Amino acid sequence: MLASMEAVRRLMDLRHRGRAEDLPDVLAAAAPLFDAESATVLLVDYGQVGLHPLRPGSAASLVVEETPAGRAFTTAQPQWSDGLLWIPLLHGAERLGVLELRLKAYPSEEALHDLTVIAALIAELIASRRFYGDAVEHTRRRMPMQLAAEIIWNQLPPLTFAVDGTLVTAVLEPCYEVGGDAFDYASNGDLLHVALFDTVGHGISASALTTLALNTYRNARRSGLTLLDTCRSIDKWIRSQYPGSFVTALLAELEMDTGAYRRISAGHPAELFLRDGQALPQLPTPNTLPLGLGHMLSRPPRIIEQQLEPGDTLVFYTDGITEARDVSGALFGVDRLSEFLLGGLREGAPAPELMRRLIQAIVSYEEGELRDDATAAMLQWRRH
Fold it and tell me: Do 161 and 66 reside in the same domain of the chain?
């Protein structure tokens, strides 16, 4: 226990000095203190396909699919094989990668608890120190990222968030070229705000418009505007700054204590509504024109209200998901999307893992060449 605490103290020193790239040296020096022959940080790449050492060359990269390290990442549970222990690196509910430890024997329950605490501290250090250098970005990127995607990724919140039984998790693809899609969420008291945006066009112009929509949404939310006035504010600013352009969006609110759900669909596909292993009828959509075109309607946006039941799942998506085409030209479609998600939920797949599998399925369906940005977000509610 005392040796483990000394390892924690050494790692804690990085909170006040040091960069993410300094973590491997500190971790290597601290490894003997928790009876490890070696300790390596493996971070997941943007495509969530592989796990890669924070220091290149310090260990081999591993694929997520069908490896013990990958199972630790996908299940968020420790995995053991041939003297190696992999512990998930979780920043809150966000999956960053795994901690790989070479041990002489499987640890005792108390030792495993200490190692889990150390892994949690490492995840916190990565999340807090990543902005002081580019080591984490260099590790996570498997190819050059287009400028439009760089702009969008720097605007987004963590992909996964959970509080009091409510969870939000999202995926974006193509991760190195995305420019027109974005999502956002915020938890304030018992109110959860969630939004998904799909901007017309591609490249820098699309990312600039998406940036305006995303930050106008945050400004309206932080200014205390209602859902209706938030929609009007985004619409006004898009029309003012990018006349003739538009953004489709789902803007939603969930009262986490009661399950009261409200949303506006601005020219956007309806979210999937899943309950007790089946898809319920979709909520009315759209309720107003795409953002930027609202002046063409005389009536205000309509707010749709729905009472959720504990365990309900809502899935937001952009048309890049349902309009993906295989070699014959057949659409992936809403029905296939529902079947895929319901199958994963029946298997008990964690929501972040189900979203990862979905995007891999879409990429595979289009044989690796997406015709459009594909973004999805899952919201699960359980009464707390």
Answer: no
